[in-house]
Design brief:
By secondary structure, the chain is α/β, with parallel strands linked by helices. Helix content is about 40%, strand content about 15%. Bound molecules: magnesium ion (MG).
Length: about 160
């Protein structure tokens, strides 16, 4: 339990249903990109992800992308999937979440953070007092810092995904 525990742990973004969001009492999603919606640096979303975004929006939920990646990567990607975005959001710090929340046209009752990393997405959500849905990473992500974070995640994930 504590700051590193997500509200819910699922496999893929497409496992998040309108029913689950209603159960959580959330009407808005702050959504990660790399390893959540698409493989890192790739322009095409994972299979089914675009359909999922469209269905979630059609069900009345607000969705804003909130990513730590650069604007150069996130802006064109967000545009291509039809979502507003905050890039360089510095998760787990709360600033990006606040900026993403402010991009919503209506004030949300409650937001849920969705992402694949415990030390950015889940920790950030908990620090900001928001709910979170943790997903399983699907693609290799290059870099030493991500390698360290994945190693730190290992035992926590083991308990979450029994
Ligand atoms: Mg990610």
């Amino acid at each position: 339990m504590g700051l590193l525990t997500p509200t819910v742990a699922l496999k893929n973004v497409t496992d998040i249903t309108p029913g689950l969001l209603r159960e959580l009492g959330c009407d808005a999603i702050l959504l990660d990109v790399d390893n959540t919606l698409a493989p890192p640096t790739e322009k095409t979303p994972y299979e089914g992800a675009q359909k999922w975004i469209d269905e979630i929006k059609a069900n009345g939920f607000h969705v804003v992308i909130c990513s730590n990646n650069f604007r150069k990567r996130i802006l064109p990607f967000s545009k291509s999937v039809g979502l507003d975005c905050v890039a360089m959001s510095l998760k787990p710090l709360p600033f990006g979440f606040v900026r993403a929340k402010n991009k919503l046209h209506e004030k949300p009752k409650s937001v849920v953070v969705v992402g694949d990393q415990i030390y950015t997405d889940v920790l950030g959500a908990n620090l900001a007092g928001m709910k979170s849905i943790l997903l399983q990473p699907r693609s290799f992500e290059p870099g030493i810092t991500i390698k360290i974070r994945r190693a730190m995640e290992k035992n926590i994930r083991k308990k979450l995904y029994k």
